[in-house]
Design goal:
alpha+beta, Maf protein, 8 strands, globular
Protein backbone atom coordinates (compact mmCIF):
# COMPACT_ATOMS: atom_id res chain seq x y z
CA UNK A 1 0.00 0.00 0.00
CA UNK A 2 1.07 3.54 -0.73
CA UNK A 3 0.26 6.93 0.75
CA UNK A 4 0.09 9.67 -1.86
CA UNK A 5 0.32 13.05 -0.18
CA UNK A 6 -1.17 16.00 -2.02
CA UNK A 7 1.67 18.45 -1.63
CA UNK A 8 4.72 19.64 -3.48
CA UNK A 9 6.23 21.22 -0.37
CA UNK A 10 9.50 19.43 0.41
CA UNK A 11 9.55 20.74 3.99
CA UNK A 12 6.17 19.15 4.61
CA UNK A 13 7.23 15.90 2.96
CA UNK A 14 10.27 15.64 5.24
CA UNK A 15 8.02 15.98 8.30
CA UNK A 16 5.45 13.54 6.91
CA UNK A 17 8.06 10.89 6.13
CA UNK A 18 9.67 11.28 9.55
CA UNK A 19 6.37 10.94 11.42
CA UNK A 20 4.81 8.18 9.27
CA UNK A 21 8.09 6.42 8.57
CA UNK A 22 7.34 3.61 11.01
CA UNK A 23 4.20 2.55 9.14
CA UNK A 24 4.15 -0.12 6.45
CA UNK A 25 3.21 2.38 3.75
CA UNK A 26 5.38 3.73 0.98
CA UNK A 27 5.03 7.51 1.16
CA UNK A 28 5.13 9.58 -2.01
CA UNK A 29 4.23 13.15 -2.91
CA UNK A 30 1.72 13.68 -5.69
CA UNK A 31 4.58 14.99 -7.83
CA UNK A 32 6.53 11.77 -7.28
CA UNK A 33 3.38 9.88 -8.22
CA UNK A 34 3.14 11.84 -11.48
CA UNK A 35 -0.08 13.62 -10.50
CA UNK A 36 -0.77 17.30 -11.05
CA UNK A 37 -4.53 17.92 -10.81
CA UNK A 38 -5.89 21.45 -10.99
CA UNK A 39 -6.97 22.17 -7.41
CA UNK A 40 -8.94 25.22 -6.36
CA UNK A 41 -8.66 25.68 -2.61
CA UNK A 42 -11.83 27.65 -2.01
CA UNK A 43 -12.88 26.14 1.31
CA UNK A 44 -13.74 28.31 4.30
CA UNK A 45 -11.88 26.07 6.78
CA UNK A 46 -8.65 24.07 6.91
CA UNK A 47 -10.73 20.88 6.94
CA UNK A 48 -12.63 21.87 3.79
CA UNK A 49 -9.45 22.70 1.90
CA UNK A 50 -7.76 19.46 2.96
CA UNK A 51 -10.85 17.56 1.80
CA UNK A 52 -10.85 19.38 -1.57
CA UNK A 53 -7.20 18.54 -2.21
CA UNK A 54 -7.44 14.90 -1.13
CA UNK A 55 -10.52 14.28 -3.27
CA UNK A 56 -8.97 15.96 -6.32
CA UNK A 57 -5.84 13.79 -6.13
CA UNK A 58 -7.89 10.65 -5.41
CA UNK A 59 -10.01 11.35 -8.49
CA UNK A 60 -6.93 11.90 -10.64
CA UNK A 61 -5.48 8.65 -9.33
CA UNK A 62 -8.72 6.77 -10.01
CA UNK A 63 -8.74 8.01 -13.60
CA UNK A 64 -5.30 6.48 -13.98
CA UNK A 65 -6.46 3.22 -12.41
CA UNK A 66 -4.25 3.23 -9.33
CA UNK A 67 -6.69 4.08 -6.54
CA UNK A 68 -7.11 0.50 -5.29
CA UNK A 69 -3.68 0.37 -3.69
CA UNK A 70 -3.35 3.94 -2.39
CA UNK A 71 -4.46 6.09 0.50
CA UNK A 72 -4.56 9.72 -0.61
CA UNK A 73 -3.86 12.37 2.01
CA UNK A 74 -3.81 16.14 1.94
CA UNK A 75 -3.24 18.76 4.57
CA UNK A 76 -4.20 22.36 4.89
CA UNK A 77 -2.45 24.33 7.55
CA UNK A 78 -1.87 27.88 8.56
CA UNK A 79 -1.25 30.50 11.19
CA UNK A 80 -4.06 32.12 13.16
CA UNK A 81 -3.25 35.37 15.00
CA UNK A 82 -5.87 36.38 17.54
CA UNK A 83 -5.12 40.13 17.41
CA UNK A 84 -5.70 40.02 13.63
CA UNK A 85 -9.02 38.18 14.01
CA UNK A 86 -7.49 34.88 12.94
CA UNK A 87 -5.50 36.17 9.96
CA UNK A 88 -3.88 34.93 7.82
CA UNK A 89 -5.73 31.66 8.57
CA UNK A 90 -6.72 29.61 5.53
CA UNK A 91 -5.00 32.22 3.39
CA UNK A 92 -1.62 31.71 5.07
CA UNK A 93 0.07 30.34 1.93
CA UNK A 94 -1.60 32.95 -0.28
CA UNK A 95 -1.09 35.93 2.05
CA UNK A 96 0.43 38.79 -0.01
CA UNK A 97 0.50 36.40 -3.00
CA UNK A 98 1.64 32.80 -3.38
CA UNK A 99 4.97 33.81 -4.93
CA UNK A 100 5.87 36.21 -2.10
CA UNK A 101 8.68 34.79 0.09
CA UNK A 102 7.61 33.85 3.60
CA UNK A 103 10.25 36.19 4.98
CA UNK A 104 8.28 39.07 3.47
CA UNK A 105 4.93 37.68 4.61
CA UNK A 106 6.31 37.28 8.13
CA UNK A 107 7.85 40.74 8.06
CA UNK A 108 4.50 42.25 7.12
CA UNK A 109 2.77 40.49 10.01
CA UNK A 110 5.45 41.73 12.42
CA UNK A 111 4.87 45.30 11.18
CA UNK A 112 1.12 44.93 11.74
CA UNK A 113 1.82 43.81 15.30
CA UNK A 114 4.57 46.35 15.92
CA UNK A 115 3.07 48.01 19.02
CA UNK A 116 0.96 45.10 20.23
CA UNK A 117 1.90 44.02 23.79
CA UNK A 118 3.11 40.49 24.46
CA UNK A 119 -0.09 39.34 26.18
CA UNK A 120 -2.08 40.16 23.02
CA UNK A 121 0.22 38.36 20.56
CA UNK A 122 -1.35 34.92 21.03
CA UNK A 123 -1.42 32.70 17.94
CA UNK A 124 -1.58 29.10 16.87
CA UNK A 125 -0.61 26.84 14.03
CA UNK A 126 -3.50 24.66 12.81
CA UNK A 127 -3.29 21.61 10.56
CA UNK A 128 -6.13 19.54 9.15
CA UNK A 129 -5.35 16.32 7.31
CA UNK A 130 -7.89 14.56 5.10
CA UNK A 131 -7.47 10.97 3.94
CA UNK A 132 -9.39 9.17 1.20
CA UNK A 133 -9.12 5.38 1.50
CA UNK A 134 -9.39 2.96 -1.45
CA UNK A 135 -12.99 2.10 -0.51
CA UNK A 136 -13.95 5.78 -0.69
CA UNK A 137 -14.17 6.35 3.06
CA UNK A 138 -12.83 9.71 4.23
CA UNK A 139 -11.25 10.66 7.55
CA UNK A 140 -10.16 14.11 8.74
CA UNK A 141 -7.88 14.86 11.71
CA UNK A 142 -6.86 18.18 13.24
CA UNK A 143 -3.77 19.28 15.16
CA UNK A 144 -3.07 22.58 16.94
CA UNK A 145 -0.05 24.10 18.66
CA UNK A 146 -0.42 27.30 20.68
CA UNK A 147 2.19 30.03 20.90
CA UNK A 148 2.60 33.70 20.22
CA UNK A 149 4.10 35.97 17.59
CA UNK A 150 7.62 37.11 18.35
CA UNK A 151 9.19 40.47 17.58
CA UNK A 152 11.64 39.40 14.89
CA UNK A 153 12.48 36.50 12.61
CA UNK A 154 14.56 33.95 14.52
CA UNK A 155 15.96 30.62 13.41
CA UNK A 156 16.51 28.98 10.04
CA UNK A 157 15.57 25.35 10.63
CA UNK A 158 11.91 25.59 9.70
CA UNK A 159 9.83 26.91 6.87
CA UNK A 160 6.79 29.12 6.37
CA UNK A 161 6.00 31.25 9.42
CA UNK A 162 8.16 29.21 11.80
CA UNK A 163 10.68 32.05 12.41
CA UNK A 164 8.03 34.35 13.98
CA UNK A 165 6.12 31.68 15.92
CA UNK A 166 7.46 31.74 19.47
CA UNK A 167 6.91 28.84 21.86
CA UNK A 168 7.17 30.18 25.44
CA UNK A 169 7.59 26.73 27.03
CA UNK A 170 10.63 26.11 24.81
CA UNK A 171 11.99 29.67 24.85
CA UNK A 172 12.52 29.45 21.10
CA UNK A 173 10.71 29.92 17.82
CA UNK A 174 9.55 26.92 15.78
CA UNK A 175 12.45 27.64 13.41
CA UNK A 176 14.95 27.29 16.26
CA UNK A 177 13.80 23.78 17.17
CA UNK A 178 15.58 20.72 15.82
CA UNK A 179 13.66 18.54 13.38
CA UNK A 180 13.20 15.93 16.09
CA UNK A 181 11.82 18.47 18.57
CA UNK A 182 9.45 19.96 16.02
CA UNK A 183 8.19 16.57 14.90
CA UNK A 184 7.22 15.77 18.49
CA UNK A 185 5.08 18.86 19.08
CA UNK A 186 4.05 20.47 15.79
CA UNK A 187 0.47 20.92 14.64
CA UNK A 188 1.20 18.68 11.65
CA UNK A 189 2.72 15.95 13.80
CA UNK A 190 -0.34 16.00 16.08
CA UNK A 191 -2.70 15.64 13.12
CA UNK A 192 -0.47 12.95 11.58
CA UNK A 193 -0.28 10.95 14.81
CA UNK A 194 -4.08 10.85 14.88
CA UNK A 195 -4.09 9.78 11.24
CA UNK A 196 -1.52 7.09 12.03
CA UNK A 197 -3.99 5.61 14.52
CA UNK A 198 -6.66 5.56 11.80
CA UNK A 199 -4.23 3.72 9.51
CA UNK A 200 -3.50 1.15 12.21
CA UNK A 201 -7.22 0.54 12.72
CA UNK A 202 -7.62 0.03 8.98
CA UNK A 203 -4.72 -2.38 8.78
CA UNK A 204 -6.03 -4.39 11.75
CA UNK A 205 -9.55 -4.58 10.37
CA UNK A 206 -8.26 -5.87 7.02
CA UNK A 207 -6.32 -8.77 8.57
Amino acid sequence: MKIIFATGNEGKMREIRAILGDTEFEIRSMKEAGLAPDIEEDGATFEENAHIKACAVAEALAQRGGAQECVVMADDSGLEIDYLNGEPGVYSARYLGEETPFSEKSGDLLRRLKDVPEEERSARFVCAIAAVFPDGEEVVTRGIIEGRIGYELRGDNGFGYDPIFYLPEHGRTAAELTDEEKNRISHRSRALEQMKEELKKRMLSST
